[in-house]
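Holo model, fructose -6-phosphate. Inputs:
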Amino acid sequence: MCGIVGYIGKKQAYPILIKGLKRLEYRGYDSAGVAMIGECGELNVYKTKGKVDNLTEYCNDKDVSGCVGIAHTRWATHGEPSARNAHPHYSRSRNLAIIHNGIIENYADIKVRLQAEGVEFRSDTDTEVLVQLVEYIMEKKNLPLLEAVQVALHQVIGAYAIAILDRREPRQIVAARKQSPLVVGIGEDEFFLGSDASPIVEYTDRVVYLEDGNIALIRLDEELRVITILGEEQELKVKTVDIDLGQIEKGGYEHFMLKEIFEQPECLMNCMRGRINVEGNHVTLSAMIDHRQRLLGAKRIVMVACGTSWHAGLVGKQLFESLCGIPCEVEYASEFRYRNPVVTKDDVVIAISQSGETADTLAAVQLAKERGAFIYGVCNAIGSSIPRATDTGTYIHVGPEIGVASTKAFTGQVAVLSMLALCLAKERGSVSDEQYGEMVKELTLMPRKMELALKTNEQIRHLAPIFTYAKNCLYLGRGYNFPVALEGALKLKEISYIHAEGYPAAEMKHGPIALIDSEMPVFVIATHDHLYEKVISNIQEVRARGGRVTALVTEGDTRIQKYADHVVTLPDTLECFQPLLASIPLQLLAYHIAVCKGKDVDRPRNLAKSVTVE
Ligand code: F6R
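Output:
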């Protein structure tokens, strides 16, 4: 989820590049860098850890002259956030510099091959492998940059948006894309490059969105050329953008939260990439390979987390218990750290955190560590404090989450916990091969099913105004859908400031049923699972007391509409994966209700994205 900017023209590149990086900082901000071909033909690369402001401070006394340059703001995937791993990366001779957004999956194989040929590496990134490969091909086959890039991209598996400078060709940028966005802006005697149009629109409204497999040859005083990696010339499809700057930083969405809700299918693909094989029948997690004995020897799993991450843990508990037969507890990190919990060296403690910086979760990790437990992190922010404090872990790889209300992190966490449970269950022999195969296959279908779940957006947008009057709402679910009810209620509370409770549907009659009247909306997750009939009875209990029910149901359901005021339909899936789908309409519901109420969705009052204080 890094940000890419480029400029070639008659103006000084540096100020344009820096401004562009700031616009793209939402895409990642663990490090940043620029490369410019200076007035005397030298290729200068400057990069620093941290935000773009650190980079500008660092560049204060540097030669930043030149009318051609590329720049990058990073969200680390391979290699910790550091100046060394920041982009741009030089090739061995320092004639080339590259920036990259995406993941080169077969980088390790290519690296070994190049190392055997004597190529030395200066970083831990997958990106450097690509620039070294391009240079190697240029030298070995005596090819110009464009052709060498074509050959190199044939050897690469993965996703990329790249831009490359060649010191010996100071009037040119070569850029390419596959599965990561890249836009070329066409100005008067100048060109721009961006991960999205936000760094471009202030200079020109004429843009070309590169398609997968396209390479752009951007040369000063020449027409822009777009060629496929097979060498076929493409017709230029120049589009006019008419977007307000404030909006495009959110990729055209009104709020980061909505953007992140809609990113979930892509996030899930990123989360599973390289972990579920292409045949879709096997899951591998590197933590499971490196720490097999320790993980298989777990007598108990304890999950520590806060907020939404704690809800993901509740889904994980059901997976670990039902698939692996391992006793499992889910603890609020803030309670765990101040109790005297029984934790032993036979326990595996899983710390779940989007930011990787939540103070209570970090403290819980430290306590569990002191008591000898093995610590496993499930985090999003690469190189953050919790992953650094753990023995091993799995990143969820959903990209930076900027909206304060967590959305895509929840589904990423559930996906990682599902993959971990499947790995453990397979190794322990607690699932049949058939069940394992069916579950892995179903996970691979989830991004498509999430897209279908997102199609509920319009219906929910229309329903939302009905609920803005509410002072209290009740969310009911059972089994795997109970944590979904909790999560739905939390989302509503956070951004619309309506009080909401998540409850196990059958517990309602032990208290909350007293609250039910026609003024309190009740949202019931009633998808097809082994508790379906029981949930129907719970809906009837609500109806009998004048309650107004909105139900999430599985496609093809014909019964619940008889009892519910509104029905929202979701694709069918296995019971254990229902949270991955059912959470989506509830995220949308909270979002649209908050928008209807005129609330500041991305910056809800009193909340912070990363809770680094207890
Ligand atoms: C809810 C939300 C919070 C976080 C909680 C934990 O939308 O964002 O409840 O889930 O503060 O944060 P992380 O996951 O960063 O540890």
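The mean pLDDT is 92. The pocket of fructose -6-phosphate is lined by residues 306-309, 353-355, 358, 361, 405-406, 490, 494, 610-611 (CB under 6 Å).
Archived with the compound record.
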